[in-house]
Amino acid sequence: MTITADHRFLRALRRESVDMTPIWIMRQAGRYLPEYRATRARAGSFLALAQTPELACEVTLQPLQRFALDAAILFSDILTVPDAMGLGLHFVDGEGPKFARPLRSRADIERLGVPDPESSLRYVTDAVRLIRHELHDRAPLIGFAGSPWTLACYMIEGEGSASFARAKALALEDPSAMQHLLDTLARSVAAYLAAQAAAGAQALMVFDTWGGLLTPMMFREFSLRWLGKVVEQVQAQAPGIPVILFSKGANAHLEALADTGCDALGVDWTIDIGAARARVGDRVALQGNLDPAVLAASPETIRTQARAVLDAYGPHPGHIFNLGHGITPDIPPEHVAALVEAVHDLSRRI
Question: Model-level pTM greater than 0.90?
Fold first, then answer.
């Protein structure tokens, strides 16, 4: 698959000039869209939806059929890698993801291997190939994975958690076991992302959802270090494919995250994006960072808040407009349309 160089999203990742600020939205294919809910009902379950390439393609493209978004993002889940490792992923309504066989000992960790993306995760790479074909190059496709630390949290806890205390305790009490797990995960995530790139993904994103739960020292040792390993390995296996890191709640570490060699950083809404840019300079592009709750407000307020983010970033290259986290299911689709229109209109003037 070839990369089309002049998509404004890809130009912004390279910190080149664009005609207007590109925008896409985390979880843009999701429950706020009635057509997504209909496809999800047809699939029978979230996992069936994610593991059926034709249906994953359908929901990936749905938001682009409604809105003038500047990128598509693969419809999948961050927990596909641990599921391929044999932990038995399933979803419980109202409770979220759970693993039937969570990691409970060093022996459990040492039994893990690196999954072959073209075998146990073939449904993902097949979906990428199909989406690229159906996109007809009208927008770039983003592939993604969870960060080693975030995956480790779920694998050790066995489910979601507010604190992931069990994972933190393992990191503190048996750091060598945790490092072994994170090394296996870094190699797995890098191979998985490289396989998505080989299948046609034109940019890659790593979601470090739970890095912000860590103390500064633990973040450096158990999150940042392994994000750097993933970037290094992806760049070796898929040269030329831009990598975006998003470590939610880790604004104290922006400079160190930029030093990983990634192409862009996602930032959440708890930092002024202009202040973030001042700290990282022109080393990376920045993605963000409207508070997702703004989309519950009126279209007029959405436009005002979009302007505030654009003004804070300023007339500099390298901005990709996004939310500071994923869109929530309660948002009216017409509010998303208002945001996309506002970003394009206002940034064209800038």
Answer: yes
